[in-house]
Amino acid sequence: MGADARAERRIEWLSRLGALLVRALGWTWRVRVSYDADVRRLRAEGKPIVFMIWHGQMLPLLYHHRNEHVTVLISEHADGEIIARIATRLGYQTVRGSTSRGAARALLGLARVVGEGHDLAITPDGPRGPAKSLAPGPVIVAQRSGAPLIAAAVSVSRAWHLKSWDQFVIPKPFARLQVAYSSPTMVTANDARDALTEVEKMREAFDVAERRARE
After folding, report:
1. How far apart are CA 163 and CA 125, in angstroms?
2. What is d(CA 149, CA 202) in angstroms, rounded to the nearest whole number?
3. pLDDT in the model for residue 78
4. Over the stretch 138-185, which tens digit does the pLDDT of each residue have?
5. Backbone angles phi, psi at 94, to 5 degrees
6. Distance between CA 30 and CA 18 in Å, rounded?
7. How many CA atoms lie within 13 A of 36 on its CB side?
8. Rounded mean pLDDT of the chain?
9. Of 69, 134, 195, 210, which one has the fewest beta carbons inside 10 Å?
10. d(CA 171, CA 188)
11. Can you give the pLDDT at residue 214?
12. Predicted local distance difference test score (pLDDT) of residue 76
């Protein structure tokens, strides 16, 4: 067996195991959701949403929104293929790329996905941080697609925190999770360059979502 075949088998095995572990762990979590009326309304109206989540909170939020056919942006770093396959097994569509490196092509692809009516989830501080920094990708996608931005946040009663740049959160078995959302935010700029002046709207949306999740 060649090196490529062994690498493929390893990736496939790890993605299967990862998806199984996430489902098994998530099954024990007690999840409460608040401030989701706008999310439900927009979906009932068939209007796509650009969700923003912090990289460190990715795991519980990916589990919560599983099987909703949301498209997620997965970076092309070394572990990206494993993460992409786990996300696919959880019912997500995936786009590979970055909103910081080689961003133009990725952002055009993401705007096209949203324009076709699909919800999108982006981590503006991923894949390398700093934690809770704001790459402008979400506002550019929102400007090009006309879709609203909504920040999602989660507070967890008991969790492990990895010693990584984002302090990646893994809720412990039977943890209580409170998921909350900001109100929809529209990007009003006339073009992508002007949209860069509206990046602070992302911070405001995250502040609201995080405050609501802590309530």
Report:
1. 17
2. 8
3. 60
4. 999 999 999 999 999 999 999 999 999 999 999 999 999 999 999 999
5. -125, 145
6. 20
7. 16
8. 91
9. 69
10. 37
11. 96
12. 73
Residue 121 class from Cβ within 10 Å (0-12 exposed, 13-18 middle, 19+ buried)? buried
Among residues 131, 128, 59, which one has the least CA distance to residue 98?
128
At 168, the amino acid letter reads F
Residue 190 identity (one-letter amino acid):
N
Q: Poorest-confidence range of 79-93, 96-110, 144-158?
A: 96-110
Integer-rounded Cα radius of gyration of the chain:
17
**Does residue 75 have a pLDDT over 80?**
no
Contacts of 146 by beta carbon, 8 Å cutoff, 6+ apart: 115
Listing DSSP states for the chain in one string gives --HHHHHHHHHHHHHHHHHHHHHHHHHH-EEEEES-HHHHHHHHTT---EEE--GGGHHHHHHHTTTS--EEEE--STTHHHHHHHHHHTT-EEEE--SSSSHHHHHHHHHHHHHTT--EEE-TTTTT--TT---SHHHHHHHHH-PPEEEEEEEESSEEE-SSTT--EEEPTT-EEEEEEPPPB----SSHHHHGGGTHHHHHHHHHHHHHHH-
Q: Provide the 10 A C-beta neighbour count for residue 93.
A: 14
* 136: CB partners within 8 A, 6+ apart: 99, 124, 195, 196, 199
Domain 3-214 has CATH 3.40.1130: yes
